[in-house]
Amino acid sequence: MWLLRLAWALAVLGVAASPSPGPGPTVPPPDKASIFADLSPAELRAVRTFLMSRPELGLSPSRGGPLAKNTLFLVELLPPKKRLALRYLDQGGPRPRRQARAVVFFGGQAEPNVTEFAVGPLPRPSSYRPLRFKGGRAIPFAARPMSQLEYELLHRTLAEAMEPLYRLLRDSTGFWYHNCSQRCLTFTDIAPRGLAPGERRSWLVLQRFVEGFFLHPVGLEVLVDHRDPDPRRWAVQQLWYNGHYFSSPQELAERYEQGTLAVARLAEPPSRHLFSSYEPRGRFATGTPTEVHGAKVCEPQGRRYWLRGNQLEYGGWSLAFRLRSSAGLQLFDLRFNGERVAYEVSVQEAIAFYGGHTPAAMQTKYMDAGWGMGSVTYELARGIDCPEAATYLDAHHLYDADGPVRFSSAICVFELPTGVPLRRHFDSDFQGGFHFYAGLEGQALVLRTTSTVYNYDYIWDFLLYPNGVMEAKVHATGFIHATFYTPQGQRYGSRVHSHLLGNLHTHLVHYKVDLDIAGTGNSFETVDLRFENISNPWSPGARPHVPPARVGSGWHSWGSPGRGGEMGPPPAPAPTHAGLLPAPGNGPDPAPAPRRYHLAVTRHHENEPTSSSIYTQNDPWEPLVSFEGFLHNNETIEDQDLVAWVTVGFLHIPHAEDIPNTATPGNAVGFFLRPFNFFDEDPSVASRSPVIVRPLDPPTFSRLEIQRWTPASPGPCVAPGPFAYNGTYRQE
């Protein structure tokens, strides 16, 4: 039986691995794992070329030109249906047809819409068919994600609208928006874009364009209606400046010229040591050295994992993985010692709900799949984002581009010494000696990528341990989403700098966990413990408190009939953040992430592949994928193909120490998959990494027998070459 454990403050545990180094990352994937592999650059180009050649679609290049045109927005793998994949993987059935998912914006027609297509067969596509969401609903054009072209047009609209405010902005901030070359303002846009379905009205927060501009709002927020495909019909509807609302830029400018405006005057930013920068400043009181390198991860005798294309093997573990442009890391066919544990474990959505006094802050409810959080996987820095010894893999995305874009070193794989033994025991003789000592060093294999969704950086990890435990974890870092400080805003956050309010917010991250424990026929139970007051059978009159009774809800187990048994200790109760989230009927309901449930279990359905979509951010009121609909069919979940939908999260109360960036310690959440009575013993006993020490001549202890199955010395850790970084991602 496998335990699904929710953990709200995670710690790494440990791992052992495959005993010898294997082939490098350039080796092609095994045939079976490749059915889950991301589309190659050649396949991405083939899909685009095929669709662009279809005259009935009337597609135009994405960049440049008008907004009212038909464009190809996204191309990524369309994974095979589970039943077809299992027939191929387990029963020798035919290989599933390889297909792409293509998202097309039909903006150049009388009734604009968005349509998704299945395109195939790959690598030489010859046909396409529309894909339907559950319930057959069409995708509203207003629900589409933002494109680079729309941002460029929004910039032009804002530049024109800000012209009357040139003097106010120049005098109060030293920067301006229109016709600037060096001392420029920029903006951050807020979503959802409106208050009802069909709207596309965005609040824009103006900021000084300096390093870390997210922390430099100038006190001006602008509401722009950009629903119409013709940007000539876009208009500024409202402005907020330093605590007050204005109906137009002209009204705000007139108030300034009349001298009746409460002006927020900002000091000139320094040329060096800007508070939002990473430049070192200050000194540690102890004087211990920081000008030299700290501890490093090394592989003194080579890699202990095998990476063949998109298949990863380590110790007892094997899995296939991909990096979806739409939502990020996705694991398939997760096995331990050849036996499938899960068909799929994947990131679904990352949500952040904010509170605030400014209109932008009170409107902010970010749903990051709508910002292409799987496509913003920028280069990982060696030795910082991942160890120098890690294996680095490129990713290719076709997201709002006219061809595949290569993101260098977007994924890394490495073995991590956890710094704590996986197991150990000192067997004392209680007379100054011992009978034996035994320990197994702790290591874990880490599969990592990052998503930089504008201000926030998410570090996504899957960790594999030698005792059959898998951990999914995400760290939040990057710049806080901050607004201009006003006294009224202190109810909704903390003043973190002179003119800066760090707004209260809740992070929620949603995962899909399609467990197949000893087959697809699984059952789920929730178990709790309570104390019982019983009579003591060996001492009449005494009434010990013992906790044997299993009642109510507490920890969660998953199993197959005839496989599994009793479970281990439950996790600590997880906190709830219900008071920080909108109640049903009060604004957009985050339907893609089951905020009402830390864990929800449903039967697997092919028409419920994800719990969110790229369209929910801009239409959360009538989401195309409504997770609540997954739960209201009253289906039995006994001995069925089940899916667990896991929500983890934390409340972030910003503080001065979030400057310049939120730090990762204390800002990580995730969950564990743990076996309970699934194996006969801890499977990490197969590792050849333990050390056993036995005295040969007690009680003198002058001679010891040291047993180990690895070389006596690991050898030196040789530093690689100097640090290098490129950071570009370009169409090839």
Percent helix, as a range, is under 10%
Number of helices: 7
Q: What value does the Rg take, in angstroms?
A: 28 Å
* Outline type: globular
Report the sheet-strand fraction: 35-45%
User: How many β-strand stretches?
Assistant: 37
Mean pLDDT: 89
Task: Look at the helices and sheets and give the structural class.
Answer: mainly beta
Unreliable residue runs: 5-26, 564-585
Distance between the termini: 48 Å
Taking the sheet with the most strands, its summary is:
16 strands, mixed
Indicate the topology:
Blueprint (H helix, E strand, L loop, with lengths): L1 E6 L33 H12 L6 E2 L9 E9 L3 H10 L7 E8 L6 E8 L6 E4 L8 E2 L7 H14 L4 H8 L11 E5 L11 E8 L8 E9 L9 E7 L2 E3 L2 H10 L46 E4 L2 E4 L2 E8 L3 E9 L2 E16 L4 H5 L1 E3 L23 E9 L5 E13 L5 E6 L5 E7 L2 E11 L2 E9 L5 E9 L3 E3 L8 E5 L2 E4 L1 E11 L7 E11 L11 E15 L39 E5 L23 H5 L10 E11 L15 E8 L14 E6 L8 E5 L20 E3 L1
Parallel strand pairs: 2-3
Antiparallel strand pairs: 1-31, 1-34, 3-4, 3-19, 4-5, 5-6, 5-7, 8-9, 9-10, 10-11, 11-12, 13-14, 14-15, 15-16, 16-17, 17-18, 17-29, 19-20, 20-23, 20-37, 21-22, 22-35, 23-24, 24-25, 25-34, 26-28, 27-28, 29-33, 30-31, 32-33, 35-36
